[in-house]
Each structure stands twice: as C-alpha cells, then as structure tokens.
Design brief:
Blueprint (H helix, E strand, L loop, with lengths): L1 E7 L3 E7 L4 E5 L5 H10 L2 E6 L5 H4 L2 H7 L4 E4 L10 E2 L5 E4 L2 E7 L8 E5 L2 E5 L2 E2 L2 E2 L7 H11 L7 E4 L4 H11 L4 H15 L7 E2 H7 L8 H7 L9 H12 L2
Parallel strand pairs: 3-4, 4-5, 5-6, 10-13
Antiparallel strand pairs: 1-2, 2-3, 7-8, 8-9, 9-10, 11-12, 13-14
C-alpha cells in the first residue's frame, strides 16, 4: 500500500492509502477539491472513506466525494452519522478494505465519540495524538484523553502516526520550553524548525520517536513531573496529563 498526505485547508492533512491497482481509501476529507485533484491526477478509484470524528475540517468533503464516486462507503463513529457516514463503527470493530484489516480504537477526548483506525503500520488518529502533542479537549476530559493515549501507546514501535494537522513545530516549541535540557526534544525541535523553514512535511511520525519527544506520552517521567512541580501517584498520573494540556492551552 502507498501512503499519501494531501495538504488541505489551513494546516490539515487528508491521508490516502492506495494499492497498485489504483483503488484508494481516503481519511478525514475536510474538503473535496484537493482530494479530487490528486485522485484524477493519479487515476485512482476511491472505494472507502474513514472518518475519525465529526468536526467540519474532517468531514467537509464527504458529500461532494460521494457525489463524485457513487457507491463510496463511509465509515465513522456514531457522531458522524449526520456528516455522511454510512457504516457506523465502534471500539473493537474490524474493517476489511483493499486487503487491509483496520482495527477501530475508541479514542475519546478531543470529541466524545472520536475513533482511530489501525492497520499495521498505519494509525489514522485524527485529532487525538499529534507529533509532539495531543488534541484539544473540546468535549472530553483529560482522563479520557490520557486513556486514549495509553491505548495508542500499546501499539508497536514502528507504528506510523498519521495525524490530521501540521502542529509539530508548535508542539515541540512547547516541549522544549517545559524541558529545555532534554537533548532529544532539543535536537528534534531544531530538525523540525529546519524542515518547516523549507515548507517540509513533518508527518507521519513513528510511535517510537513520539515516546521520546511527546510529553503527553511521558507523564510518568520524574524529570517532567519535577519540571511541572508535581509529585503524582502512579494511579493518578492522568493529572500530569491534565496539567500539561492546561499549560499547552495557554502557551
């Protein structure tokens, strides 16, 4: 399978997977035009859309794509039913498309019904995990998002985090401010600054790398807790996550 990122809107990425025959899967099409241009340029044949949640910048192109390709199957959680989803999915469901087996992972936090799709090595996680950060908590709680991160953190090191926004630079700027002496974060921040200066794309990112530079995956790290001025008990470590998210909101 071939993975492609299509820049859209202000800072979105619409992801596609296509096989050698040109059949393709589209993930979170926030707009249709950018997708149609790529599809027609490559003579692809869309067969399915995967939706992670109901926000307009992830579903805005569904209607036009379905009009352009009759028979297109649209998978999504219950909250996307009025956004064009024709097959409702939930935790533990298995979807077979183009010889790929996608596991549906319930990842609430950004929204209450948010899901992610995993087919090794690809994880399409919408606005749950970003490179170096996590999604805003528009509907869910810090504890819900923490638990969603724990589910993702159980996946293999080589998992490719295919998130939906180009937020890496701002996330690492925040991480470097919290842990200014962390060599891994500092080095990655500089690399991303150089890459973005050339308008380069920072995604996808490997989960193994995120475990090193994403503070939201390091909530049990003593250095992080010290930097935040807290000493959280192991069974309450989600509170570190909550404090981090609050600091990022006001950074």
């Amino acid at each position: 399978m071939n993975l492609t990122s299509i820049p859209a809107l202000q800072d979105n990425y619409i992801w596609t997977l296509n096989n050698e025959q040109g059949d393709c899967i589209i993930v979170d099409p926030g707009e249709a035009q950018a997708v149609l241009e790529k599809v027609y340029a490559n003579s692809w044949h869309p067969v399915a859309i995967l939706l992670t949640h109901h926000h307009q910048d992830h579903v805005g192109g569904v209607k036009k794509l379905c009009e352009s390709f009759p028979g297109l199957v649209v998978y999504g959680p219950a909250e996307t039913q009025d956004k064009g989803a024709t097959r409702i999915v939930s935790e533990g469901d298995i979807i077979n498309i183009l010889d790929c087996e996608f596991s549906v992972i319930f990842t609430p936090g950004h929204t209450l019904g948010h899901v992610s799709y995993y087919s090794s090595p690809y994880l399409f996680c919408g606005d749950t995990m970003f490179s170096g950060g996590c999604g805003r908590l528009f509907e869910g709680t810090p504890e819900q998002m923490y638990q969603s991160f724990q589910k993702i953190n159980q996946l293999p090191d080589e998992t490719l985090i295919c998130c939906a926004h180009e937020y890496t630079l701002s996330n690492l700027k925040f991480a470097a401010a919290v842990l200014p002496h962390d060599a891994r974060i500092t080095a990655s921040y500089q690399q991303i600054k150089d890459l973005r200066a050339e308008n380069g794309i920072t995604l996808p990112t490997k989960l193994a790398h995120e475990r090193e530079i994403n503070l939201f995956l390091r909530t049990q790290d003593p250095d992080l807790q010290k930097a935040l001025g807290v000493n959280i008990l192991p069974d309450q470590v989600w509170q570190t996550f909550a404090l981090l998210r609050e600091k990022k909101d006001h950074f």
